[in-house]
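Human: Note token order:
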Amino acid sequence: MKKLYFILFVLVIGSSAVFAQDSKLGTWGIATVVLPGDSVHKWGGYSELQIRTNTAFSQFQYYEAKAGVSYDLDKNFIALLGTGTYHTYDFADLSAGPLTNEFRVWEQMTVNQFLYRLKFEHRYRVEQRWVNGDYRNRFRYRLNMFIPLNNTKIVAKTWFLSLFDEVFFNNKAPNFERNRVSAALGYQFDKKWIVQAGWINQRNYTVTQSSGKNNIMLMLMYRINRKNAVQKEQLPTTTD
């Protein structure tokens, strides 16, 4: 297992080096409230606020607010319907208002796999987007791997690694629109509070070029615990 951690660490550092040409470092701050479902309480949901800056902890340029309703089809299959609003600004002139306004609705299926210490999450999402009034479709797939470090499960007082890669496609050229890769260290304090801190790179593709940016990612999650809930291992996934 120690060899596996070392290999993953090398892969993360190597991925960072690939994107080293993206010199500016931004910040993504994510705050999420989750109501998990289980075999008794099938319905759940979440809400989230995200803020991004152009440089590390300064030059605000983006925020999004979103929420969703989930339904546990099975302990490892979760369907979700979500909606959100997204706004991008010129960090040098915030008074001018947002450059991009987007409203979004999406349908999502999450499939979880538990292989002893390795936890995998497959997330499939179809989005309907209105960007400055123009309608667009988008299709996303994310593979997320979690590795608890001091326990076999991610429970209270557990350190863990989170690694993911997500690809974005649309029905207009270029069909491959974006790739997002991340590595983070997380800690679950108890049944309610979870934090993660790490790195995320987002690379966008157009017909003529591609551009990417490295970011510091900070995430705070609060889980609402129901009375008489059936306990199951919950993955501390970022819902972005």
